[in-house]
């Protein structure tokens, strides 16, 4: 994906993500191994294609009086509006020891579980996104929680295991076990750096595997995902996955973030498939977004990514925080009109591909 770290200004607004400077990777082709023949064909995957959103800001927006209208101008529960566009899954992030900032904090596991109960009651599937930090971690930032900062590798390994076991148990006790679990967010450079840096692959792999093991111990049927950003940079993906796989890294699915324009979508999705095929894993796009002030272009990009994913056998696409509006946040890549509280034409992209 192309996401820069989200950094809040003093006013509590979140800075806009860096737009993708699209350059399609030109790495040499990887031969498809016969051992992967049992994976779904593109046509089979497209039949069960998941359309999803990350709407983790909703509880804090609602607490501050925000509400949403449908395209006809009628006030409705946001999840109901989203279902009208074919949205069937919701991704929710969780921080370890978050602050009370409405935009850059909250999302502790108890709050997440409470919102997940609403999602499940609406008949939608859940993706849990572990940030493994007290606030944002993304492609350029992978800071451990403050309480883990000075830990040795062995101490952090124990903390990781205990944390994932405890938080997954909260989800289980609330009867909201997730369909998918991302162990880390945009982890191109590793997790909990510097201890789990990609430049120290043995420790990085150990931390990921500790998380994987605890997810499966509590929820054997959850699909555990490794999440990378900027799939146009094929060499970066190769560096991560080659080191992770060589060290015995465990994962069930590869998921990616990408915020490119319509013209580059096919090449970027082709990279997603190529790197996923190389390790025999299914894949989906767990983050997409585009400028709300260029709604027609963003709609076209959403359609292009969706069509490319279906053609390449991708299993779904998630829009990152489409519900956001000002003045809650200055993030400019949602899909709602802040003046009318109605969805923009961006959301129509979900029904046009």
TrEMBL record:
Name the Pfam families for this protein: Glyco_hydro_53
Q: Does the keyword Metal-binding apply?
A: no
Q: What is its EC number?
A: 3.2.1.89
User: What is catalyzed by this enzyme?
Assistant: The enzyme specifically hydrolyzes (1->4)-beta-D-galactosidic linkages in type I arabinogalactans
Keyword Hydrolase recorded: yes
Renumbered to this chain, the signal peptide range is: none
Q: What is an annotated GO biological process for this record, any one?
A: pectin catabolic process
Q: Which UniProt keywords apply?
A: Glycosidase, Hydrolase
Q: Which InterPro entries match?
A: GH (IPR017853), Glyco_hydro_53 (IPR011683), TAT_signal (IPR006311)
Q: Name one GO molecular function term.
A: glucosidase activity
Q: Which PANTHER family match?
A: ARABINOGALACTAN ENDO-BETA-1,4-GALACTANASE A
Family to which this protein belongs: Belongs to the glycosyl hydrolase 53 family.
User: What is the protein name stated in its UniProt record?
Assistant: Arabinogalactan endo-beta-1,4-galactanase
What is the organism of origin for this protein?
A: Streptomyces lincolnensis
Upper classification of the source organism reads: Bacteria, Bacillati, Actinomycetota, Actinomycetes, Kitasatosporales
